[in-house]
Specification:
The protein has helices at 2-21, 26-35, 40-61, 70-93, 96-100, 103-130, 134-155, 160-170, 176-200, 206-227, 232-255. With 256 residues, the chain is mostly helical. It has one domain (2-255). The protein is globular. The model has no long low-confidence stretch (mean pLDDT 83).
Length: 256
C-alpha cells in the first residue's frame, strides 16, 4: 500500500510538471492509476479529477501573464465549461473502446496544427483583410474549434494541453508563456465541469485520485514558475517533442 502511495504521488508530481510546461502529464498519471488497479474508465475520470489541481495551481502561477487577456478569458471559460460538460456526458454514455481508435488521429492533427498553426493563422489573417466575410468565418471557425477542443478534454483528458496549445497557435497567439497560462485556464474550466458530472455518476476513485492530486498540485505550481524563466523557443520545441512522442505512443497502443 505504501509503495502504491509513493508511486501515485510521484506520477502526479511528474504529471503536474509536464502539464504546466507543455502538456501530456496524463500520459503519466492515467497509466499509473490503471497500474494500481483502478478500472480504465474510472481511471480516465479519476485522472481528470487528479489533474485539475495542477491546472489550477499552474494557472494561478501564470496570473500576471494573463492580465491583458481578461476579456478573452471570460468567453474562453464559458466555452470551456460548456465543452467540458458535453465531453464528460459523452464519456459516460459511450463505450471507451469506440473512441480510442480516433485519439491517435486527433493527436496527430493537433501536433501538425501546433507546428503549422502560426502560418495558417497568417494566411487566414491575410485573407480576412481582403474579404469582408472571411473575418466572420474565422471567428466562427475558431469558436467551434475551441468548443471541440473542450469536448475532447471532457471526454478524454490525455493530450488536452497539446490540443489547446495547437488551438491557441491557430488563433494567433505567439507568446508561449501567455499560451501556457491560457492553456491551464481552459484545462481548469474543462476539468471542473467534467468532474461535477463524474461525481454525480460516482466515477471517481477518491483515495487513489487524491494522492495523485497532491502531486499534480505541487508539480504544476512550481514548474509554472520555472517555465516562465526558460527560453520560449526551447519550450516550443519541447512541446513539439512531447506531442510527437504522445502521438506515436497512441498509434502504437491502438494499432500495434
Amino acid at each position: 500500500m505504501l509503495i502504491d502511495v509513493i508511486f501515485l504521488f510521484m506520477a502526479g508530481l511528474i504529471g503536474g510538471v509536464l502539464n504546466s510546461i507543455a502538456g501530456g502529464g496524463s500520459f503519466i498519471t492515467f497509466p499509473a492509476l490503471v497500474f494500481v488497479g483502478v478500472p480504465p474508465l474510472m481511471a480516465n475520470a479519476t485522472n481528470t479529477f487528479s489533474s485539475c489541481a495542477g491546472y489550477f495551481s499552474g494557472a494561478y502561477a501564470f496570473r500576471h501573464k494573463l492580465k491583458e487577456h481578461k476579456k478573452e478569458m471570460l468567453l474562453t471559460i464559458l466555452f470551456s465549461l460548456l465543452g467540458g460538460s458535453l465531453g464528460a456526458f459523452l464519456l459516460l454514455k459511450t463505450p471507451e473502446a469506440s473512441f480510442e481508435k480516433v485519439i491517435p488521429w486527433l493527436l496527430l492533427f493537433a501536433t501538425l496544427l501546433f507546428i503549422f498553426g502560426g502560418r495558417a493563422n497568417t494566411l487566414l489573417q491575410s485573407y480576412s483583410e481582403k474579404n469582408k466575410y472571411a473575418l466572420q468565418f474565422k471567428s466562427i471557425f475558431l469558436s467551434l474549434s475551441l468548443l471541440s477542443v473542450c469536448v475532447y478534454g471532457g471526454f478524454f483528458n490525455a493530450g488536452l494541453g497539446i490540443v489547446i496549445l495547437s488551438y491557441l497557435t491557430l488563433s494567433g497567439h505567439k507568446n508561449i508563456n501567455v499560451m501556457n497560462g491560457l492553456k491551464l485556464v481552459v484545462s481548469s474550466a474543462v476539468s471542473l465541469a467534467a468532474i461535477l458530472l463524474f461525481i454525480l455518476s460516482d466515477s471517481i476513485a477518491w483515495v487513489e485520485g487524491s494522492i495523485v492530486l497532491v502531486g499534480t498540485l505541487l508539480g504544476g505550481y512550481y514548474s509554472a514558475h520555472i517555465s516562465m524563466k526558460l527560453n520560449q523557443q526551447y519550450i516550443r520545441w519541447f512541446v513539439i517533442f512531447m506531442s510527437a512522442v504522445i502521438t506515436v505512443y497512441f498509434f502504437y497502443v491502438t494499432f500495434a
